[in-house]
Amino acid sequence: MSCTLVRSSAEQLTAISQDPDILDDLISLSGASRIEGTDIRRTAAALDLGKSFDGLNYLLNDGAMMGDTPLSFMYGGRPLTEEEYGLAPPLGHAPQVVKQIAAALDPIDAAWIKTRYDARRLDEDDIYPNDWTDDPDGGLQWLLHSLAACKGFIAEAALAQDGLVVIHS
Questions:
Q1: Which helix (H) or strand (E) holds 79?
Q2: Three-state SS for 67?
Q3: In 19-106, where does DSSP find H-type helix?
Q4: How far is residue 17's CA from residue 33's CA, in Å, rounded to a whole number?
Q5: Which residues contact 12 (CB under 8 A, 6 or more apart)?
Q6: DSSP type of residue 92
Q7: Which CA distances in Å does 37 have to 68, 119, 141?
Q8: How far apart are CA 74 and CA 91, in angstroms?
Q9: Beta carbons within 8 Å of 18's beta carbon, 6+ residues apart
Q10: Euclidean distance between CA atoms 162 and 156, whole angstroms
Q11: How far apart are CA 41 and CA 6, in angstroms?
């Protein structure tokens, strides 16, 4: 399982609702740069958080899968279609919501993540990829890389007044 965030215009969000195959054109991760030591890949238009997304979402939402805050963006959002794209229908966030997500992520830093990270708890709560206690320090570093990549990607999208598509595959 992985989670890919894709920048899109408001018009593209509407078009995806009518033709989910448009996502193929937006996602092209073939020329993506990889963050060293992780499965996180990035292009200008897409960020593939790899398997780290579930742990990051868990920490951002204090153990809840979803919430009513902008920090639940990986599982929240408006379904763009009823058709699955990957493992579920793609979720969309309008440009004004992306600004809220960026603002909510802005104060979150490594110290904040470290106070919430507990590898044993992540494993006990069955948070994917379910091997946090195998290398607790490596897991923490992985999540810190994911947070930095996610914050930067979403901040750039907000600045450009882009929307966001969330794909679980």
A1: strand 78-79
A2: coil
A3: 22-27, 53-60, 95-105
A4: 29
A5: 22, 26, 163
A6: E
A7: 33, 19, 9
A8: 8
A9: none
A10: 9
A11: 12
Burial class (CB in 10 A: 0-12, 13-18, 19+), 138: middle
Structure tokens at 19: 């033709």
Q: What is the pLDDT tens value at each position of the chain, 169 positions in all?
A: 889 999 998 898 888 888 888 887 777 665 668 777 778 888 778 999 999 999 999 999 987 777 778 999 999 889 998 888 778 889 999 999 999 999 999 999 999 999 999 999 999 999 999 999 999 999 999 999 999 999 999 999 999 999 999 999 8
pTM, two decimals, is 0.90
* Separation between Cα atoms, residue 153 and residue 75, nearest integer Å: 17
Do the beta carbons of residue 149 and residue 47 sit within 8 Å? yes
Is residue 62 packed enough to be buried (19+ CB in 10 Å), middle (13-18) or exposed (0-12)? exposed
Task: State the Cα–Cα distance between residues 126 and 142, nearest whole angstrom.
Answer: 17
